[in-house]
Amino acid sequence: MKTKQLTFVAVTIGFLLGALAPAATAQQAEDTPFRAADFEYGDRFRLPDGQAPEIWNPAKRKLLEGGPMVGGTVRATDPRTYCAMAAAGYDFIWVEMQHEAISWEQVARFWRTCPGPAAPGARVAYADEREIQHATDMGAAVIVVPTVDSVEEAQEAVNWTYFPPLGRRSAGGGQGASEIWNNVPGGYRQTWNDNVVLILMIETLEGVENAREIARIPGVTGLFAASGDLGNFSGFGEGDEEYEALITEVATAAKDAGIHACAPLRWANRPDFTCFQAGTEAANIRRGVAAELQQAAERYASTGGGGAGRTPSEAGAVLANLTAECGSITYEADCYAAVESAASAAGSMSDSDQAQISRRVREIIAANPGQAGRIREIAAEGGLDVR
User: Fold this and answer.
1) pLDDT tens digits for 331-373?
2) 144: exposed, middle or buried (C-beta count within 10 Å: 0-12, 13-18, 19+)?
3) 80 exposure class (CB count in 10 Å sphere: 0-12, 13-18, 19+)
4) Cα torsion for 88, 94, 97, 98, to the nearest 10°?
5) For residues 355 and 335, what is the distance between their CA atoms, to the nearest angstrom?
6) What H or E segment, with its residue span, contains residue 94?
7) Domain limits of the chain?
8) 87: how many CB neighbours lie within 10 A of its CB?
9) What DSSP designation does 139 have?
10) For 283-334, what is each residue's pLDDT tens digit?
11) Higher-confidence residue: 359 or 139?
12) For 235, what's the count of Cα atoms within 13 Å in the CB-facing half-sphere?
């Protein structure tokens, strides 16, 4: 009888302990603080197994194809000007938000009016949550961040460009997600991280020093070797050994990390560069007008007006480029490159064409006293008489 009683007591205790165990485990779980680092990200935004994300961003597609990816630059505030640039053949449009007094409302109107065919893009002012998310929420598919000096700053750019789990971009809506890209294959949220292009500009000596680490951060698409400001921060210019070593270091950092090296379009002939910034809308207008007037003059001459039987000039394209890059100097290096190219081309032209080019360079020298010495020096080195 005692044995039966003892067995009953043991079974009862075991039952009670078993019943209390889940409660104890639950209590223990309640006492354990939540740790974000231990959390496993869910599959809500994951594409079905076997389905690769489609690349709907034309700029990203061009890079994946090996480039070159070329972006036009817009500094104006008029949507018609933006639309003309967006339809001109560029892969993306770089709206200048660092150095111009353009509002995000104006930029939003650009992209809403002409979301393509060039991908909307912007050079923001700095790596900041508000700045970058204004661009992405309004529709930008290419983000350019200037003056990146450190790994920490580069990581901030990644954080606010990408959705989790790679970044920390908030799902805030905006016309980008709801209007411009709302029908992209696979869904905007699901495919954004695969389609956005993030370019970080290396413009300072500190940026060059940290370029190799910056290039290895997941999410960085390319490093931009900033031709103007690397001269500004180093005190040297194109062709100087010290300057060229900085450019080489940035390009090497990108290449070794397996990402893209970006630069001004005039560097398209330099090895290792696959993405480029082209001219502004103002430069394109000046270049187009100069070429149009030159063509008109040649046609007029061919009819007998102004001198029958004249040989068409070869100087038209050279004069157009000089006018575009030096008529109102935005980037000194671009103007110097245009003068160097003009001097080189003039050597094989007729005396009358050489005279036209020399005259135009003299006008540029007179209009730009701050750059006159360097322009005169470049012209002389190329054999162009500008006395």
Assistant:
1) 777 888 888 888 888 888 888 888 888 888 988 888 888 888 8
2) buried
3) exposed
4) -130
5) 19
6) strand 92-96
7) 58-271, 282-381
8) 13
9) T
10) 888 888 888 887 787 777 766 655 544 455 677 778 888 887 887 776 777 8
11) 139
12) 0
HSE toward the beta carbon, residue 107, CA cutoff 13 A: 27
Q: Which residues pair with residue 315 across a beta bridge?
A: none
Question: What are residue 199's DSSP bridge partners?
Answer: 144, 222
Report the distance separating Cα 349 and Cα 353, nearest Å: 6
What are the b/e assignments for 183-204, b being 16+ CB within 10 Å?
A: ebebebebbbbebbbbbbbbbb
* CA atoms lying within 13 Å on the CB side of residue 212: 6
Q: From residue 270, how far is each of 56, 71, 247, 251, 264 by CA, in Å?
A: 29, 17, 11, 10, 11
Which fold, 58-271? TIM Barrel (3.20.20)
**CA distance linking residue 103 with residue 302, whole number of Å:** 49
Distance CA 202, CA 190 (A): 30
List Cα–Cα distances, 193 to 53, 69, 128, in angstroms: 10, 19, 18
The residues, ordered by sequence, that sit 6+ positions from 327 with a Cβ below 8 Å of its Cβ are 286, 364
What the block records as the tokens of 134 is 């204004």
Q: Tell me the pLDDT tens digit for each residue of 174-210.
A: 999 999 999 999 999 999 999 999 999 999 999 999 9
Q: Are 298 and 316 in contact (CB under 8 A)?
A: yes
Return d(Cα 292, Cα 301) in angstroms, integer.
Answer: 14
Question: What is the distance between the alpha carbons of residues 122 and 161, in angstroms, rounded to a whole number?
Answer: 12
Is the pLDDT confidence value at 29 over 70? Answer: no
* The two three-digit tokens of residue 104, written as one number: 């995000």
Higher pLDDT, 15 or 115: 115
pTM score, two decimals?
A: 0.78
Q: What is the pLDDT of residue 265?
A: 93
**Backbone dihedral angles phi then psi of residue 224, each to the nearest 5 degrees:** -105, 120
Phi then psi for 381, rounded to 5 degrees? -65, -30
Instruction: Label residue 268 exposed, middle or buried (CB < 10 Å: 0-12, 13-18, 19+).
Output: middle
Q: How far is CA 295 from CA 81, 284, 286, 303, 359, in A?
A: 24, 16, 14, 13, 19
